[in-house]
Amino acid sequence: MNLTLKVWRQNGPDDKGHMEIYPVKDINPDMSFLEMMDVLNEELISEGKDPIAFDHDCREGICGMCSMFINGEPHGPERRTTTCQLHMRSFKDGDTIVVEPWRSAAFPVIKDLAVDRAAFDRIQQAGGYVSVNTSGNTIDANAIPVPKQNADKAFNAATCIGCGACVAACKNSSAMLFVSAKVSQYALLPQGKVEAKERVRKMVNQMDLEGFGNCTNTGACEAECPVGISLENIARMNREYLSASLSSAE
Amino acid sequence: MKLDANIPSGSLGQKWSSHKSSIRLVSPANKRNIDVVVVGTGLAGSSAAASLAEMGYNVKAFCFQDSPRRAHSIAAQGGINAAKNYQNDGDSVYRLFYDTIKGGDYRSREANVYRLAEVSANIIDQCVAQGVPFARDYGGLLDNRSFGGVQVSRTFYAKGQTGQQLLLGAYSALNRQISKGNVKMYNRHEMMDVVVEGGKARGIIARNLTTGEIERHGAHAVLLCTGGYGNVFFLSTNAMGSNGSAAWKAHRRGAMFANPCFTQIHPTCIPQSGEYQSKLTLMSESLRNDGRIWVPKDKKDAEAIREGKLKPTDLPEEKRDYYLERRYPAFGNLVPRDVASRAAKERCDEGFGVNATGQAVYLDFSSAIERYGKTEANQLGITNPSKEKIIELGEKVVASKYGNLFEMYDKIKDVNPYKSPMMIYPAVHYTMGGLWVDYNLMTNVPGMYALGEANFSDHGANRLGASALMQGLADGYFVAPYTVGDYLADEIRTGAIDTNSEAFEKAEADVVERIDNLINSNGTRSVDSFHRALGKIMWDKCGMARNAEGLKEAMTEIKALREEFWKDVKVPGRKDMYNPELDKAGRVADFLELGELMCLDALTREESCGGHFREEYQTEEGEAMRDDENFAFVSCWKYNDEPSKAELVKEELTFENVELKTRSYK
After folding, report:
1. Which of its termini does chain B have fewer beta carbons within 10 Å around, N or C?
2. Does B136 contact chain A (CB < 8 Å)?
3. With the CA atoms of B510, B515, B520 and B522 taken in that order, what torsion angle do they form, in degrees rounded to the nearest 10?
């Protein structure tokens, strides 16, 4: 396959940035998108040019590090697929592919396609945990049965990989899907119920402080989420938040 | 030099509890004045950092990724073992201990392994308390499954994403401590060197990967939780960034490297499809619970399949060779990983391999789909279900167990594994070798600890499935937080570590000089081209089968490649900004030394055990021949200017509680 890539180049957070055009030749359709980028980078290095910086690590769709906005969609055209699991067979010979970083005020560009997602960590630090010490002297794991239905829903919410595609997909740069996944996981489990109110208040507050936008229910986040986190979680978080707001802070 | 493993006295079952209650403590007031550096934030690192901070130490934690949650523990799929005996199938702490010792081919330390089995049950309690959503049955209780090398169901799981859920649990514990200010987290920071002063670990030199800035961090103890070095093979199931540099830097500063040649080649990975390939993807071992492994019985059929003239689904039952079930009837498809990998290689080497390359075997779910479909039909009260109905129901059950793995396979290979068998081939997955540690998980450098995959202690020559997660969390939550105190009790009068000392100056100068050498070496070849070349040497000569001649050649070749690297590597960009190529160059430079030590270790160990298979030492049926008389020891290597000159120190392994037997799964 021969392709034309239009790639966002930005030499650091303060640089204005621009698109640059790169032809790539003899691409095998079985290559992953990132392997195609590797080939391009090898070429750039051999020509003495600056390779394109992008984040990636596990390359099996679970670490959540890869983050490319491909042809107007986070992680590209395939549903429920991260960029590292996107294969070139999803494109046609002769295609022009536009590659940009996640764009959100809360995710500043580090270089080219790599962005800083530390805001997500800070939201988790605000309350994304159960306050239990790590002594191991808790009660037996089977002491509290959890209805399978709730356990499954909590698991589905917990599969969020924290990549930020939901924010990149949203016209408001809202992080509601990400935050609600964590809020839901704990709200659905008995272990998390104790602190549920405080948790949702703190996490939503931090989300606002980080500069993420509001949710206007367009559902773009759910459509683009590579692991299929459901909008149902946002509804649950709104209920949790409302109920927390109506009860006293103490 | 003599190494003391500091194994407590007493009976096996008493060692840990009596040791834990007799080692020294540090008072809360003193803990506030003690700094601990934790490098790496996978299961071992996150759990250790969280636990130590909770106990009151000042913790600084470092990871090279953009968030601690990205560490490669996240990718572990199948599960975590624990001796809970929830399934009432006769499991016990002793059985888990015994299976692990036997699975490791009697090359691990009894006392460490027993402790691991002992704390395994607490891990599950802890994780559930943290809100880790393990799989549950309809009664709301925890579900289990079976894994290779054992005959009980003791593996807890969260679909095929167990590592993700456990890591996110540890990450949440870490976040709780970060929010309290007890842990200071350094994302996108890489440890460049350990600072050793007066014979003790006193801190690290780190590089901020975003700005290129070099930083000094003093500490009274340094915990290396930096994972394994499987990426020395270039192609492995490790993440792209996984590297052996922290362990290697520690080794160069005096820490012993133990059993470096013990590498786990995992039998069920998606085969390589081309030269451009950047990594290999694992298909969880849990699939061997329900998948049956086979190749065609007839070479002609194998050829026809390779040429695309025949489909695997067209081959009738009697023309298939379920070679694991044939060779190892007692364990069948659930033999340990090293045995399964070698058996696949043997079939492919003999010309029975499938895939265009001939380097693949089938993993087939059709009988499981049928079996589950029938059970499901019975439960639903469907009498005389049609074949289609059975398959439809069976596929649903299989999807509920392995759905995400099947999806992943489909994405990568563009083949639907519900309809056609998966193709798999062994790939490098885990390294049992690592930094030598004593019972307290301390290396031979006082104050320097190694946890999780970074140490060598628990898995001997072969790790059993679902035991890596168990060890990472055991070390981080339940072992190191206690044992570190025993050492730190002597540090309460030390005061803050002075990072302007000569040792820090020198270590930083070394780091800067090396970075300058890399960035200024105006060569012609990319870092990856060297890494690929190294990987090929390692895979061909120090991979699934090794022999003396090949290993000697490999050592010469690696040395030459290393010299070439420093002359001709090309690292673009600048050192004072975000530059992933520079980061990679430093890691590959270390792999080029470590690879040679691995070959030396493999050459010295003149026996076959676990993942280490020397062609010279095998039975007529091709089974491994272990030599307990001469090789029941841990090979500990001391650094001496260059890898080939490393000095061997032996830690003899004594087995007081198990009898050394030929490992048989027949």
Report:
1. N
2. yes
3. 120
The Cα A245–Cα A200 span in angstroms is: 10
Q: Is B337 a catalytic residue?
A: yes
Q: Is residue B448 part of a domain?
A: no
CATH number 1.20.1250.20 is the correct assignment for the domain at A3-110: no
Instruction: Tell me the two tokens of residue B498.
Output: 């002075």
Looking up tokens 């052996």 gives B244
Residue pLDDT, tens place only, A91-132: 999 999 999 999 999 999 999 999 999 999 999 999 999 999
Find residues 138-167 of chain B whose CB sits inside 8 Å of chain A.
138-142, 158-159, 161, 163-165
Q: Which of B463, B1, B136, B184 is nearest to A121 (CA)?
A: B184
**Between β-strands A3-9 and A96-100, what pairing exists: parallel, antiparallel or unpaired?**
parallel
Are A125 and B273 inside 8 Å of each other by CB? no
Residues with Cβ < 8 Å from A75, sequence gap 6 or more?
Answer: A66, A68, A81, A82, A83, A86, A163, A165, A224, A226
Spell out which residues of chain A touch residue B241, defining contact as CB-CB under 8 Å: 57
Give the pLDDT of residue B175: 98
Task: Give CA torsion, residues B157, B440, B100, A141, to 10 deg.
Answer: -30
Inter-residue contact B10 to B20 (CB < 8 Å): no
Residue B75 inside a domain? The answer is no
Record the tokens describing residue A186, joined without a space: 């704990």
Rounded to 5 degrees, φ, ψ at B632 are -80, 65
The catalytic residue among B337, B546, B614, B626 is B337
CATH of domain A118-246: 1.10.1060.10
Q: Which helix (H) or strand (E) segment is A98 a member of? A: strand A96-100
Burial class of residue B370 (count of CB atoms within 10 Å of its CB; 0-12, 13-18, 19+) = middle
């105190």: which residue's tokens? B485
Decide: helix, strand or coil at residue B477: helix
Residues 459-488 of B with CB under 8 A from A: 477-478, 481
Q: What tens digit of pLDDT does each residue of A52-105 get? A: 999 999 999 999 999 999 999 999 999 999 999 999 999 999 999 999 999 999
- The CATH code of the domain that includes B615 is 1.20.58.100
Is A198 touching B (CB cutoff 8 A)? Answer: no
Contact residues for B586 (Cβ-Cβ < 8 A; gap 6+): B190, B192, B245, B514, B515, B518
Q: Is the ipTM of this complex over 0.95?
A: yes
